[in-house]
């Protein structure tokens, strides 16, 4: 579970632990949640990713489920978006997902089973003014997951995407009250998602019950992205 120490990632970690999985939560700080194993992992750095996997494999055994959830925003309009703001968001959100998926797939190919779940966003489908970098990274996750779904299917490894709408976490709390209200106003269900509502979708896609689902994009967005 990358980005597992807070927000959506922590909720996913708790949901998977509650069903009996042994869960490791990875973040730059390395802090754990609720007694779960915490490991230091910066998804921007392949060596850090490899070290984190080694630690998890040594402590808990081979990784059967990867939830690629780490993500950042650096919002601004196109003409004020620096190349660093664009490429750093792509590096964490998209290239970071490639790094962890590649490392996870190694072990899953040996096991001949596995679940890859990528946390994207509704804006990867709809676009979002002021978020060209973020939306591009989240759209890229869909191409990544669908390619891996095709590449890894012969070994019973599935790759799916969850696309949340606005969720009540630190990421959204960084917005102004007016920006949050504007986001909620566009959601047919008329509220933010709770982290557990996203975690339920991740838990399903990473379960045995989802064994015939691969390459899917599951919206958890209160209807915001309908039609996309
Ligand atoms: P938070 O900002 O609450 O948490 C982000 C997580 O990502 C933290 O655990 C953080 O850990 C981790 N992270 C960031 N950069 C790195 C890195 N380089 N290496 C490892 N971990 C990193 O965000 P949310 O819980 O809201 O978001 C989780 C995911 O859900 C993200 O991918 C986000 O884009 C997506 N999402 C969120 C929505 C929302 O409205 N909140 C809507 C749609 C999608 P630390 O900083 O401690 O290293």
Kindly summarize this structure in a few lines:
It contains eight helices and six strands; from the N terminus they run αββαβαβααβαααβ. It has 228 residues and is an alpha/beta fold.
What does this structure look like?
The protein is of the alpha/beta class. The protein has a domain of 153 residues: NAD(P)-binding Rossmann-like Domain (Rossmann fold). Helices cover 46% and strands 13% of the residues. It contains eight helices and six strands; from the N terminus they run αββαβαβααβαααβ. The strands form two sheets. It has a four-stranded parallel beta sheet with strand order 3-4-5-6, sandwiched between helices. Helix 1 crosses helix 8, helix 2 runs parallel beside helix 3 and helix 3 runs parallel beside helix 5. It binds NADPH dihydro-nicotinamide-adenine-dinucleotide phosphate. The site of NADPH dihydro-nicotinamide-adenine-dinucleotide phosphate (NDP) has 28 residues, from helix 1 and helix 6.
Mind telling me the CATH superfamily name of the domain at 68-220? NAD(P)-binding Rossmann-like Domain
CATH topology of the domain at 68-220: Rossmann fold
CATH architecture of the domain at 68-220: 3-Layer(aba) Sandwich
Beta-strand content estimate: 5-15%
- Name the structural class: alpha/beta
Give the CATH class of the domain at 68-220: Alpha Beta
Biggest beta sheet summary: 4 strands, parallel
Small ligands present: NADPH dihydro-nicotinamide-adenine-dinucleotide phosphate
Q: List SSEs in N-to-C order.
A: HEEHEHEHHEHHHE
Task: Figure out the total of helices.
Answer: 8
Which consecutive residue ranges, at least 5 long each, have pLDDT under 50?
none
Distance N to C terminus: 27 Å
Shape: globular
**Radius of gyration computed on alpha carbons:** 17 Å
Strand order of the largest sheet: 3-4-5-6
Q: What is the mean pLDDT?
A: 96
Structure summary, number of beta strands = 6
Helix fraction by DSSP (H/I, runs of at least 4)? 40-55%
